């Protein structure tokens, strides 16, 4: 991925939060994860679930989670780390510097690109975390920063590497879900006005670009003398068409001053917006 190298995103122990990693923590997480995925007794399941829930509440867990993700091959542990990062960055957004947030986003993108064999649910949680970071920063970042990110996704979608294309499209799908305001997005714990503003910015600045990226990818496939009938290509076409349809049926926002007034009114007004 252009602009992302492993050296550029490698997290040093003090780069994000200054915490060191308990050498026994990974073992405990893997044991709890294996217990959840097995057929434990009720007491064993409860103990494992409680341990994972407590882990999800860790303060400033960025270095810890990133190190654990690199050290383990247990998909469920990686999933729990991604969930923890997503919840923490939303909870502690104002405490993190823009550089730390950017570093975390880059790390997650590079990680998912470097692990093409991740289980689908794990990959989707990681790119969802990336999409949440992008949306949360909408009102505080420049259009150039967001355009650069869309440009990076475009390169992935047009890559020869099938795994890279999957990551690019999955991230794009997560962005559309988060910005779409269809009730399927992440709970940020912020006002509806925040979501309305983010949605309007995305519609005005990035949505058309995303649509053109999808059309170009479809046109590229349509221009082939013969489209491969393998599962990977068919899945790619289906994903491109689904995302294009999502944009074609997009429920566009009304002018912002109307949206803000409606968001502060009755519930039916909110439904009209979304």
TrEMBL record:
It is found in: Cytoplasm; Nucleus. The keyword Protein transport applies. The keyword Translocase does not apply. GO terms for molecular function: nuclear export signal receptor activity. GO terms for cellular component: cytoplasm; nucleus. InterPro entries: ARM-like, ARM-type_fold, XPO4/7-like. GO terms for biological process: protein transport. Its main location: cytoplasm. Keywords: Cytoplasm, Nucleus, Protein transport, Transport. Belongs to the exportin family. This is Exportin-4. It comes from Branchiostoma floridae.
